[in-house]
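Hey, can you fold this one?
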Amino acid sequence: MTLSIRLPTPALFLLVGACLVTACGDGAQSAPTSTLTDSAGVTIVQNSDPAPEARMAWAVSAEPRVDIGGLNAEEAYQLFRAFDARFLSDGRLAVVNGGSAQIMLYDEQGQHLATWGGEGDGPGEFRNPFRLSPWPGDSLAVWDSQLRRLSVLDPGGGFGRQVQVAQSEFSGLIQWHAAFSDGTSFISHQDIFAEAPSTGLRRHPTSAVLLDQDGEVLSELPPQPGDEVYVEASEDRVEVMRLPFLQGYALTAWNDHIVFAPTDRMDLRVFDRSGT
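Sure. Predicted structure:
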C-alpha cells in the first residue's frame, strides 16, 4: 500500500477577529460561547462575550514592523513558501523560505544580510524546513518536517548539532512546534490511522509531547482536537490531504507554559510542562 501526504501551500492567511479566553489545562471542553436560534427558518448565531476578567487584551498594529518581498524584487527578497519567521535576540529577522530550503536573514529594516542552508540531507541542509525557534546560547533551531529532525545553528549560521525524532516512537502526522529557553521543546503527533482508513473528512485527536535537548520524552499532554484532514483510500493507496479552511489547532510556548488553541473554539488551553 502507498501512503502520500499532501500539504497546502500557505499562499493566503486570514486574520479573523475573535475573543480569546484562557481555559483550565485539564483537557476539558470549555462552556459553549454561542447559542443557536431558529427564527422563521433562519438560523441565527449569537456569540456571548467572555467575562471581563477572562479576556486577554491584544491588538494587531495597523502598520507592519517590516515588509519584505514583491513581484519585481531581487532574488534575495523573493520568498516562496515562507512558513515561519522569528526576530533573533540581536534584532535580525530569520525567515524559513521553504521554496529554496533556506533560512533568509534580514535586518530590522528588511535588508538582506545572509542566506543559510540549502537543499540536501547533510548537516545544515534541509529538505522541507518548516519552523524556527530560539535555542539556548543565541542559537536557532530549525525543524525539517520531511527529515523529521531538528538542526541547531549558531548565530553565524554554522551547524551545531541535530536531534532526530524517530518515526517509530510516534504515530501519524508529526509536527515540531517550539523550544523553551532551556532547550526543551515539544512536538505533536496525530494518529490518522487509529482506525481503518476510509475516504472522507477525518479529525483524530493529537497529543503534544515535551522532549529534552536529545529528543527524549519528558512528559505528554492530554489528547486534544487535531487537524482535520481529507483521506482518499483505495485498495492499494491511501492519500492524506490538508485542505485550506478545515478545522485545526495552533500550539506554541508561552513563558513556561504550552498553549493549545483549537480553531473551532474561542479559547486557549494552557498547560504546564508536566501536562497539567
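The radius of gyration is 20 Å. Let me know if you want another pass with a different chain boundary.
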